[in-house]
Amino acid sequence: MKKERHVSQTPATVWLRQHGVPYTGHAYDYQPHGGALQGAAALGLSAHAVIKTLVMQDEHARPLIVLMHGDRKVSTRQLARQIGVKTVQPCEPAVAERHSGYQVGGTSPFGTRRAMPVYVEQSILELPQIAINGGRRGFIVQINPQACVQALGARPVHCAISLDE
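^ Cys-tRNA(Pro)/Cys-tRNA(Cys) deacylase, sequence as received from the core. Prediction below:
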């Protein structure tokens, strides 16, 4: 793993500390459009354990957050069915940034500007530890995945599909 560079506190790390969630922060050289796969490679982590924070919306433009494995994508049809809405789609980047308060590529589910329901792919909760964005591009925090349910109130869902589908 790469040597940790100093990253000043973010709304996410402040939130984690306030909620008593232990974490370890890791900085890496952010590459635009590199996503979770690039972050995983830069830090020598499994892409399956690097979790993407996706800001989406339902048919009424109500925002929600989906936590997904870095090596998978969301079946919006399966997600919509499980959460009881007609459709789910990704927010446009500017809309996602307005809801979350974070830049796309640096979105964390912790310390968002607006409270949004959070859904977590069920299989994420089976991992011993996950790496998730710490609130800044090029900054990941490693945490126990149960913190997503316990501190965020994330609801487990089954909506992961292969990146090839």
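Confidence is low (pLDDT under 50) at residues 1-5.
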